[in-house]
Amino acid sequence: MASLKDLRNRISSVKSTKKITKAMQMVAASKLRRAEEAAQNARPYAERMHSVLSNLAGINQNEAPKLMTGTGKDDVHLLVVFTADRGLCGGFNASIVKKARAKQRELEANGKSVKFYAVGKKGYDLMRRDLSDKIVDSISFRESSRVGFDEAAQVGDKVIDMFEAGEFDVCHLFYAEFENVMTQVPTGQQVIPASVEEDEDGENEKKGSDAGTTYEYEPDPAGILDDLIPRNIKIQILRALLENAASEQGARMTAMDSATRNAGDMIEKLEISYNRQRQAQITTELTEIISGAEAL
Amino acid sequence: MADSFKFELVSPEKLLLSEDANSVVVPGNEGEFTVMSNHAPFMTTLKPGMVTAKLSGGEEKKLFVRGGFADVNENGLTLLAEHAEPADNMTASQLDEHIEAARKRMDDAEHDDTRFKAEEYLSQLLHAKTQLPA
């Protein structure tokens, strides 16, 4: 049985932990709002990009750059895993890595070889233990307060350079899609080769083909695609980064919320046992005094 | 009064402008061009430079864009710019960093092809700089 002093110490330390988790929850909540806004602001660009791409999809496939059509093989897969740079956000990082590992096992079972590119410190930490020979590179944006296009371009350039050097054939992105504060869905998405037809909503597509207008291109369709496809990849990466940032804050908020609640429960229990012990002590003291008085 | 058309300027970070315009001057990669309503469908990449939009309200808006492309279709003009900022907030010195980076890229380039591209980009940046207030 812990002594009264021990209990007191325990209670005060749990109380200060509770304060910290509470503060972290509130910080996450405000960051979440900003991250959500950023993710939403990025949406129009992605939508326009999509409709432009579907306009272009009709042009001569032979002229399309390799980034769009792929190398024609699918032997080496690059998995770009986006995670947070900080922990304390529940199962957020682990679930993204888990998703990527599942894909890796599936690919390797089919005789493909797999490489990893870790974006974000935590994912790298999680993977380097048993995958160190497969991780080609890692990057972390810990210093930049908010991710923007420049960060996405950094990752994108790296991926494109590697593709052009023939280091892989197919590229997947792994990140957590932000659904709402409670739910973040780990998602895998293929970006190279990009197939416009595969992209989610068919609505834009129809618009593009319905228009059926003959575009004029400057310099020429292939030249535009050369410029556009890398840009599209960067946009997809930006989207992944932004979704991830929002998801991370959401996950942290939920994790910290339940931590705060747990701390509250714990304090309650500790206080009950503290009071019981205090009472018991008083009773013992009283009995001692009374029996002492009686003995006289 | 000329007909107006829908003009949208989007950067990856947000939708910057979505308004009706009478004419928009766009810095295309192969020369500046002006878009007015009923322009033929047209698509081109952008070079760094100034976009000048005459809005149907009579107001004139100037924005500085860097990288991206323009898409003209029956719905109007859409500019997808990698970076875009209202010109009022820009000064020429803000470009210096990018000019430095472009110069470095040109010096580091291993192939003539990439060096040529970097050089072209650099000269476009230098030209764009002259359009901005010091």
Automatic annotation (TrEMBL), chain A:
Membrane topology type: Peripheral membrane protein
Start and end residues of each stretch annotated as Disordered: 194-216
One matching Pfam family: ATP-synt
Record keywords, A-Z: ATP synthesis, Cell inner membrane, Cell membrane, CF(1), Hydrogen ion transport, Hydrolase, Ion transport, Membrane, Transport
Localization of this protein: Cell membrane; Membrane; Thylakoid
UniProt-listed GO biological process terms: proton motive force-driven plasma membrane ATP synthesis
GO molecular function, one term: ATP binding
Keyword Cell inner membrane on entry: yes
Domain of life the protein comes from: Bacteria
Gene Ontology cellular component terms for the protein in this record: plasma membrane; proton-transporting ATP synthase complex; thylakoid
Summary of subunit composition and partner proteins: F-type ATPases have 2 components, CF(1) - the catalytic core - and CF(0) - the membrane proton channel. CF(1) has five subunits: alpha(3), beta(3), gamma(1), delta(1), epsilon(1). CF(0) has three main subunits: a, b and c.
Function summary: Produces ATP from ADP in the presence of a proton gradient across the membrane. The gamma chain is believed to be important in regulating ATPase activity and the flow of protons through the CF(0) complex.
Family: Belongs to the ATPase gamma chain family.
Name of protein: ATP synthase gamma chain
TrEMBL record, chain B:
Coiled-coil regions, chain positions: 92-119
Domain of life: Bacteria
One Gene Ontology cellular component annotation held by this UniProt entry: plasma membrane
Primary location group: membrane
InterPro entries: ATP_synth_F1_dsu/esu (IPR001469), ATP_synth_F1_dsu/esu_N (IPR020546), ATPsynth_dsu/esu_N (IPR036771)
Location of the protein in the cell: Cell membrane; Endomembrane system
Gene3D superfamilies in alphabetical order: F0F1 ATP synthase delta/epsilon subunit, N-terminal (2.60.15.10)
Sequence ranges assigned to domain ATP synthase F1 complex delta/epsilon subunit N-terminal in this UniProt record: 5-84
CDD domains per the UniProt record, alphabetical: F1-ATPase_delta (cd12152)
Topology within the bilayer: Peripheral membrane protein
GO molecular-function term, one example from the UniProt record: ATP binding
Swiss-Prot/TrEMBL keywords: ATP synthesis, Cell membrane, CF(1), Coiled coil, Hydrogen ion transport, Ion transport, Membrane, Transport
Similarity comment: family membership: Belongs to the ATPase epsilon chain family.
HAMAP family given in the database record: ATP_synth_epsil_bac
Subunit structure of this chain's protein: F-type ATPases have 2 components, CF(1) - the catalytic core - and CF(0) - the membrane proton channel. CF(1) has five subunits: alpha(3), beta(3), gamma(1), delta(1), epsilon(1). CF(0) has three main subunits: a, b and c.
Entry function: Produces ATP from ADP in the presence of a proton gradient across the membrane.
Name of this protein: ATP synthase epsilon chain
Organism annotation: Fulvimarina pelagi HTCC2506
Gene giving rise to this polypeptide: atpC
